[in-house]
Amino acid sequence: MVAGPLIKQSSWVNTLDKQTLEQRIVRYGELVPCKTAFIDTHTPGSDQKENFTIIGAGVSESPDQYVHIRETPGFNIGAAGQPPKCTNSLHTHRTAEVFFVHKGTWRFFWGIDGTDGEFIATEGDLFNIPTGIFRGFENVGKEYGMIMAVLGGNNAGGGVIWAPHVIQTAEKHGLILAETGRLYDTKKGKSLPHGVNPMPLLTEEELAQFPIVNEKDVIPHYVARYLDIKAIGNKEIVQVLGKQGMLKDKPGFEIDFLQEGQKDLGERYTSNQHEIFMVHEGYWKIEVDNTFAVLAPGDTCAVPPNTTRSIKPNVSGETGLFLVRSTDDEAGYTKDV
User: The pTM is what?
Assistant: First the structure.
């Protein structure tokens, strides 16, 4: 294995048992969705979204959001599932937001009106969305799609900042976002608590501070296509995002790509960092402190620091796994365009 402080081990340190390892695996087929996570829950065209929080509480605005693993390793991991033609409304974050497409075909678009730029992402593509721009995405495929997201910071930057028209449209359909970041559904008889104000809209002056960025400024520097990732990483583990990555950035975490045939894949090592293994293709055998499990496509495994681990494909064939590792970069903030 490569990247991150590690020590290769000749013997195991038995500190993580089988039951504990299974508790640190979030199975794709067991993901619990929330259909009321954000302000556009009732907005036509966005009302069929499902939001998932896998690692950390994420940025959901709903108390109904189920959290699979609350411990945060310096970042949060979530997912969005959407049927065809379903859109995630324009918003921005204060910290990094990195997506990879697990299932389907997606259109990402950005700008205060969503017209500054766009690109189509297919399965396995990774997008390191710059901070400082509004972004949205829609499923433009023919089947239910799923995208996985890594958000910088333990508290994911303090929530979502919505484009003003998103908040205004949501209110017309019965949802009010409080200044506290919580949603109140007037269709269910809810109202803002006494002394709590609605979330203020961004002013024209504030909106003017957001840059206008087109495709030529974003795609070459913030997008890694899956076929390119596999080609570059066909012999050695490749860093997709990080200081030495295909996409050079320091967002508080780094992302490596693993596939069958890479040098040193399957060797045992010890790391003092959190590592999150997210399977995209194939079946993988993971061992942690002399216990093992098999990970399937869409599964996520959170391995804590100071444990000995190894990872390798369990069967031959097309394989692909994203390894997300915490770093000590400041607060998970990524660079602006």
Answer: 0.90
Pick among 2.170.190.11, 3.40.50.620, 3.20.20.60, 2.60.120.10: CATH of 33-222: 2.60.120.10
pLDDT tens per residue across span 37-56: 999 999 999 999 999 999 99
Q: Name the residue type at position 227.
A: L
Superfamily name with CATH number, domain 6-26+227-332: Jelly Rolls (2.60.120.10)
Helix ranges restricted to H, the chain? 18-23, 164-172, 204-207, 215-222, 226-232
Q: Which DSSP category does 200 fall into?
A: P
3-class SS of residue 64: coil
Per CATH, 6-26+227-332 and 33-222 having the same topology is answered: yes
Distance CA 80, CA 96 (A): 16
Number of residues written out for the chain: 337
**Window from 143-152, 180-189, 239-248 with minimum mean pLDDT:** 180-189
State phi, psi for 169 to the nearest 5 degrees. -65, -40
User: What are the structural domain ranges in the chain?
Assistant: 6-26+227-332, 33-222
Least confident of 294-298, 303-307, 329-333: 329-333
Residue 333: the pLDDT is 39
Summarize pLDDT for 162-175 with one digit per residue, the tens: 999 999 999 999 99
Structure tokens that stand for 171 in this block: 């209110």
Say if residues 123 and 102 touch (Cβ distance below 8 Å): yes
